[in-house]
From TrEMBL:
This is dTTP/UTP pyrophosphatase. GO terms for molecular function: dTTP diphosphatase activity; UTP diphosphatase activity. CDD domains: Maf. It comes from Woeseia oceani. The active site is at 71 (proton acceptor). It is found in: Cytoplasm.
């Protein structure tokens, strides 16, 4: 069976970097969807559903492709933190996360006309105490503006992280272990450089 071309249903530079580092060739596009939780939906259900919705939207325009979708949220005490709308929301998110441990969930879905595989990555991140001045200075860097929870683990926010348990790449937005396993199940060779 011929291998279908791979398409990433995300415009995230981090997700593209991760796939490229695995030696994969792929196309990509952002999928603009309503990312609101449905009534009664858990954070885990939300990220897997959104990853699936993104993958399925891309598959409709690329029916002869293998499509990878992903979505990431930050969860603290049952509250889901998506991307901050503005500086006030970003600073409030960082204040809530300051000195506490939160969970980062990334749902990943791989679809084609013949395949539908999904995975969930859950990691725990503990922040040191963050002052309001630090949070405001971090916002001014521009980095947190399109990031779940208002921070990027691979960027300047690394100075806030006291501990990370789980998948670093999952916190970035695409868990390598789970993604590679799904791709191999669909016949894609990973690290074929």
């Amino acid at each position: 069976m011929p291998i279908l071309p791979l398409h990433l249903a995300s415009a995230s530079p981090r997700r593209r970097e991760i796939l490229t580092s695995l030696g994969l060739q792929f196309t990509y596009s952002g999928e603009d969807l309503d990312e609101q939780a449905q009534p009664g939906e858990t954070a885990a259900e939300l990220v897997v559903r959104l990853a699936s919705d993104k993958a399925m939207a891309a598959l409709r325009s690329r029916p002869e492709s293998l499509v990878l979708g992903a979505d990431t949220v930050v969860v603290l005490g049952g509250e889901v933190f998506g991307k901050p709308a503005d500086q006030d929301e970003a600073v409030a998110m960082l204040a809530a996360l300051s000195g506490r441990t939160h969970e980062v969930m990334t749902g990943v879905v791989l679809v084609s006309r013949e395949h539908r595989l999904s995975a969930l990555s859950c990691s725990q991140v503990r922040f040191r105490d963050i002052s309001q001045a630090e949070a405001e200075a971090y916002w001014r860097t521009g980095e947190p503006q399109d990031k779940a929870g208002g921070y990027a683990v691979q960027g300047l926010a690394a100075v806030f992280i006291a501990e990370l348990r789980g998948s670093y790449s999952g916190v970035m937005g695409l868990p390598v272990f789970e993604t590679a396993a799904m791709l191999r199940s669909a016949g894609v060779e990973v690290l074929n450089q």
